[in-house]
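Table S2 (text version). Query chain:
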Amino acid sequence: MASSQHVITCLVIIISCIYGANSQSDINYKDVLTKGILFFEGQRSGKLPPTQRVNWRGDSALSDGNLEKVNLSGGYYDAGDNVKFGWPMAFSVSLLSWAATEFRNQIDSANELGNLRTAIKWGADFLLRAHTSSTTLYTQVGDGDKDHACWERPEDMDTPRTLYKITSTSPGTEAAAETAAALAAASIVFRDADSNYSATLLSHSKSLFQFADKYRASYQGSCPFYCSYSGYQDELVWAATWLYKASGDNTYLNYVSNNQGWSQAVSEFSWDNKFAGAQTLLAKEFLAGNTNLSKYKNDADSFVCALMPGSSSLQIKTTPGGLLYIRDSVNLQYVTSASMILAIYSKILAEARADGVRCGSSNFSPSQIKTFAKSQVDYILGKNPLNMSYMVGFGSKYPRQLHHRGASIPSIHTNPAKVGCNDGMSSWYSSSNPNPNTHTGAVVGGPDSNDRFTDSRSDFSHLETTTYMVAAFVGSVAPLLPLAEQAQMQQHAYSSSML
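Corresponding structure-token output:
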């Protein structure tokens, strides 16, 4: 009779291999990484630089902030709309920065570290401009309701650029703390490349964390689009953790240690709930000898147990094709973030020479955890029942009707006549034709719980992209780059043998 551990090992391997056997050599992860980073240039707001590579985009929203005489140009449009939401934008910067610090060598070997730093800086610069005083942070530019009722290119945008902010009298801890986390993480990325800029990022991060912690109140300024459901304690722990990593100041380590009771076992890592990210980072500290952080380590293990097929405490099931399925609405945002966490945690466990994670009677080795994380990446890239890549521009079969205003209307460079709200809605949103612009690197919401997918622009739950979803995917793909290098060497050796 087969042991339960053997059965679990087989489950993980089957899910990773069932839709393509030669998985180490038939996906070009370097190309995926390149496309994922390029995506952010298609989301840019503001004055585009001469180095802009996504040439169907143009300058937009140059007057953002003028209503209150502040400069809020730049940054990223959140998804397929033309609103800049500071809270999820900061999360995107945090994720990109984490990828850059955790997998720097792999990304550098792919010649993408410079492009990744540029993507991080574009978002971080906006966050710096939005932090106009020690107790003032602008958190949103654009009226979400009016923007979402309109289908315009950002270059034509004439909807209200309403400004939203938090202050000491109208605080929002989640937004302030996430921005602190983003700037602290980014400061590590630029520590060697630009020490002055790194110091500026860290200084603003410290100020924002103090603001977030002193004036505690849940952020609801971006509802109904981004409402806080998990509260602000996760963001405070997340921010303090990044500040400790960036500064080495034990004040922040003591903060997370003293507030260990806030930590919860969770089954998702998202723009709303940062616990799994903080727990993963702090589990590394625990394994390095900070044994007073045991609650975070235990909760990091619980995250793994909630996701791994064969776990006795499984909470998140997979589709018949093997994809984690958390929620129907933009499910791949949760899959990419979970994959990133699993990939990083498997690396942390392996480096600490840990046996793995025990879930009841089962034990998952670092290799098994990494293999499962890879299976999720591979599913997104086409190893699924539909053989569909859910990254736009990758592979031969990918979504052609991305729910995205700029991508779905001809470029202002080829069609300079203004396209208004109603014209955009009737002529382009409602069109059954493929988008005229390929938004390379965009990851869509993905299939339903039965692996079914309909490529229809109006289905935003499955066809829209977000910056944080692609940022997490960058962090999920980066650890697989050694496999890409290995595949290239194998191909070179094979080609040489044929000469």
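Notes on Table S2: The chain has a mean pLDDT of 93. The radius of gyration is 22 Å.
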